[in-house]
From TrEMBL:
Domain DNA helicase Pif1-like DEAD-box helicase: 2-97
Family: Belongs to the helicase family.
Signal sequence segment: none
Catalysed reaction equations from the record: ATP + H2O = ADP + phosphate + H(+)
The protein's name in its UniProt record: ATP-dependent DNA helicase
Requisite cofactors: Mg(2+)
Keyword set, alphabetical order: ATP-binding, DNA damage, DNA recombination, DNA repair, Helicase, Hydrolase, Nucleotide-binding
GO molecular function, one term: ATP binding
Biological source species: Caenorhabditis remanei
Length: 105
């Protein structure tokens, strides 16, 4: 998955973060619209790892929402519900200060 549609289009079977996690963009990406018993939630539970391209371009709220949602889906109180997550992108495009305040643990 990727934050922007252009990067998602370059990935095989790629989709945007907002389309996979159903982020409520109108609410500042602070919530998602997935039922924990839905087929999509079950599919996310079965995923072994997550590849997130253009992660530095994502708003902090979107990453926190994904972390919180994956914890709820898996029932595991670890960052991203214990899933292996690879954050890709050009980390030189943004200042590192914003990522120090991300509450993953």
């Amino acid at each position: 998955m990727a934050w922007v549609g252009i990067a998602a289009a370059l990935l095989p079977n790629g989709r945007t973060v907002a389309s996979i996690i159903k982020l409520d963009i109108n609410n500042g990406c602070k919530s998602c619209r997935i039922n924990l018993r839905s087929d999509l939630a079950k599919w996310l539970l079965e995923c072994e790892f997550v590849l997130w391209d253009e992660a530095p371009m994502s708003p902090k709220a979107s990453m926190e929402t994904v972390v919180r949602f994956m914890r709820e889906v898996t029932g595991i109180d670890l960052p991203f519900g214990g899933k292996v997550v690879v954050l890709g992108g050009n980390f030189r495009q943004v200042l590192p200060l914003g990522y120090f305040s991300l509450q993953l643990c």
